[in-house]
Amino acid sequence: MPTKGKVKGIISNLVTVEVDGPVAQNEICYISISDTRLMAEVLKVNRGNVFVQVFESTRGLKVGNDVEFTGYMLEVTLGPGLLSRNYDGLQNDLDKLTGVFLKRGEYNSPLDTEKLWDFKPLAKAGDKVEAASWLGEVDENHQPHKIMVPFVMEGEYTVKSIVAAGQYKINDTIAVITDTDGNDHNITMVQKWPVKKAINVHREKPRPFKLLETGVRTIDTANPIVEGGTGFIPGPFGTGKTVLQHAISKQAEADIVIMAACGERANEVVEIFVEFPELEDPHTGRKLMERTIIVANTSNMPVASREASVYTAMTIAEYYRAMGLKVLLMADSTSRWAQALREMSNRMEELPGQDAFPMDLSAIIGAFYSRAGFVYLKNGATGSITFIGTVSPAGGNLKEPVTEGTKKAARCFYALEQSRADRKRYPAVNPIESYSKYIEYPEFGEYIKTRINGDWIGKVNRMKTILQRGKEVQEQINILGDDGVPVDYHVTFWKSEVIDFVILQQDAFDKVDAMCPLNRQEFMLDLVMGICDTDYKFDTFLEVMEYFKRIINVCKQMNYAEYKSADFDKYLAELNTILDERKK
Amino acid sequence: MATKAFQKIYTKITQITKATCSLKATGVGNDELATVDGKLAQVVKIMDDDVTLQVFEGTEGIPTNAEVIFLGKAPSLKVSDQLAGRFFNAFGDPIDGGPEVEGVEVEIGGPSVNPVRRKQPSELIATGIAGIDLNNTLVSGQKIPFFADPDQPYNQVMANVALRAKADKIILGGMGLTNDDYLYFKNVFNDAGVLDRIVSFVNTTENPPVERLLIPDMALTAAEYFAVEKNQKVLVLLTDMTSYADALAIVSNRMDQIPSKDSMPGSLYSDLAKIYEKAVQFPDGGSITIIAVTTLSGGDITHAIPDNTGYITEGQLFLRRDSDIGKVIVDPFRSLSRLKQLVAGKKTREDHPQVMNAAVRLYADAANAKTKLENGFDLTDYDERTLAFAKDYSDKLLAIDVNIDTTEMLDVAWSLFRKHFKPEEVNIKQEFVEKYWSK
């Protein structure tokens, strides 16, 4: 018999419940209120009092209202049909909810139970299987969606029977498997998993090493992210965090993209809703929405389900990784999630850590990032979750707890900078502060050789040295004045400006420049490094500025032109003429 | 507020603080309204039969034996077309001497719009002010604050924007408004002959600060009525949201909550988001646009209030006095409209985005030149030209007294480029340069 209880106290969405039986930490319960039931999660148990956070508004809730516990934790439903859906943080299908306004207490089924799927068996009777073994597959928006032995099933099983290829609904039994004690278990195409637990069904999790191409030069060229890597983008508001994140999710060569809009602006989510069904996936030519899942818990939606939303998204990502797919997970923003934790910790009167955040914030962030990664599955296939989170540091101060906690957990750092944004140098990623640890991995060095000839990493490092040197020289020029330094200093500075304008800056709103494939990045880097490696003759610093501005202008026109088109070649020829003018 | 016969009256208050009082009571709902000694209050905490009430007017003079009556409902507003042209206080009671409004009673602070039911904002709001229309174009359904020091003329700019915006309804939510500013708005709307399009909810500095907490929800409940029921374009003006946040801090402090940054409650982000996210483009044509004011202290945007606001709103507009031209301008560096790309170059002329960026980039070069000048260095010819450009740009486009349409703004910008620069110095796509340079 499920445990029951009565409401005893209410402070905002923290409700105290008196119970008549056992309850578990993080167990889900439902609180009755007028004609509906509100979902809540157990946060703390103190003697007979259970503290639960309600995922919705508690307006009108009274002492004495009935509470019913469910016996399970917050779970997501996993099966074919997740792709191209828009969920809230608790995995309700937003499109199926009626009315313009969200009604509290309205929950629905995340998957379509009536749809028929073309099932093809992969296993046969007699096969030995375990949790996450592939039994069959269905075609979900052109992705091979594997039907797996549910992750909760421990130990070894033998396939007793499996259905023939054909059309089935998600709740149809597609296989029967027998455990070592001889008990039969019916397997359907759908399973459930508690979101706060990581799905660990792989054999090995090596260091990630394969480049994940994003088409964004300041990432791929300067600070690459890899399949299964982790990165974070902190940035004060107005520095182009969202534009950069959308660019990555549109262009990255991932099989599945999951976007967790966590406590951010509703209109930004609407932008995804509107654009993604229209935009073409640059890698397959199909619609972007076909490979995308959106978990939207915007800033005005209930705070408690904001926390749940990132876990919901991560669990869905793990599910697809277990099928051997490349998943890209974007969370915008993890600071909002941390703030949700802070609000609850505050209401529970826990002793606060720095800036009133909970003491274990850093550990929570670390544990979450560690769920990403590149894995070898037990059948030898590979899968990955690349996770990029944004952080919204309070007051633009990177010394705050969420940024610091994330810095320890993530391996790539894309520092968006106010002063770059002010000067409209987009993406406003500071090239010197930002880093990718992956570029130092020898495995990555080996891998990139299979994609690009020559000493790519050497070139990239040289580019960064020039940028660094350019910055130093600029500071000296600012102190000593334009004519207080040798003309050479100006040349060094302007070479770094060429890199900045041509490689680092990119127009996310131009249809050509927005996405720069790796081969084009290679071409442009070679071109720009060629310009930087050339010696020029100048008499005065004025000539330097004027000359390099012309170079930058032509190179920018190249970035706007289709690669290797007539226009592109025309600008390239023009550039070579300019270079010949002053080449030593 | 009239007492109904069957209502139970409590007369034993156990605890009183400056903003709250507690008593033993049963059958009370969370968020429910009550009157304490005739003053309006709201339930904020229930523990067994211990109920804590937040008293909006403050608890001055409340005795422990005061009458407490629970009203059985959350704060609400009666909505109908009769709201138009009226002035109300924070509780939705008329303050203009007119009759009570009749209509459907709606609880304020209602549910959020399902994000998949929102439409993408796409309608330009023309204000005639180039610092806004050219650089930071506004779109209906957007939410954007002015970040301004208290001495800047934000209320005047806001009133101008409201009048030019062609909204069906303008709803003013005044929080901690000085009586002078309140009368200013009243006069401006009256003189423009638009009073029938205005609904005002006003809490002036003469009213108790905690009452302010109701103003945004009152204003937005009225806005939702006109936008949802009547499919109207509604513009909501909220001034000043810093007063609102200060009131939040007072209440959370009285309730012994642990403060986070700048003594603000930890929930500040969510509290502000609940208000600002009411801005929406509805599928049936109605929309709510929010233009707010967040006053700063000495231009400091790292303070928790502007900082959290900036993360919620779709940009911000900065006002600054430009000493070179002696006028207030819309600062092109620190201002931003996040929705501008939905209309710029789409609803306006194709060259809009590039012209806007080029002008701001050149203005940034001028700022560098200025630093050089201040540090006593010689200026190059280019530096001199950027400085001359900056002055023209400031005067002809950024100043808040500009009132021209967007195409004219673009033409002015091109004429300034032509006057001060060579085509290759402006870094604009070749096709636009060819088309507009010598126009």
Specify the number of helices of chain A: 14
The computed structural class of chain A is alpha+beta
Distance between the termini of chain A: 88 Å
What is the number of beta strands of chain A?
26
Helical coverage of chain B, percent range: 25-40%
Tell me what you see in this structure.
The complex is a heterodimer of chains A (584) and B (439). Chain A contains 14 helices and 26 strands. Chain A has 584 residues and is of the alpha+beta class. Chain A folds into four domains: 4-73, Thrombin, subunit H, CATH 2.40.10.170; 117-190, Beta Barrel (OB fold (Dihydrolipoamide Acetyltransferase, E2P)), CATH 2.40.50.100; 202-418, P-loop containing nucleotide triphosphate hydrolases (Rossmann fold, 3-Layer(aba) Sandwich); 456-582, Bovine Mitochondrial F1-ATPase, ATP Synthase Beta Chain, Chain D, domain3 (Orthogonal Bundle), CATH 1.10.1140. In chain A, strands 8, 18, 19, 20, 21, 22, 23, 24, 25 and 26 form a ten-stranded mixed beta sheet that branches. In chain A, α11 (487-504) packs parallel to α13. Chain A starts with a strand and ends with a helix. The relative contact order of chain A is 0.10. With 439 residues, chain B is of the alpha/beta class. Chain B has three domains: 9-70, Beta Barrel (Elongation Factor Tu (Ef-tu), domain 3), CATH 2.40.30.20; 76-338, Rossmann fold (3-Layer(aba) Sandwich); 352-436, no CATH class. Helices cover 31% and strands 23% of the residues of chain B. In chain B, the strands form four sheets. In chain B, strands 9, 13, 14, 15, 16, 17, 18, 19, 20 and 21 form a ten-stranded mixed beta sheet that branches. The model of chain B has no long low-confidence stretch (mean pLDDT 91). The chains are: A alpha+beta (584), B alpha/beta (439). At the A-B interface, β1, α3, α5 and α13 of A face β5, α6, α7 and α8 of B.
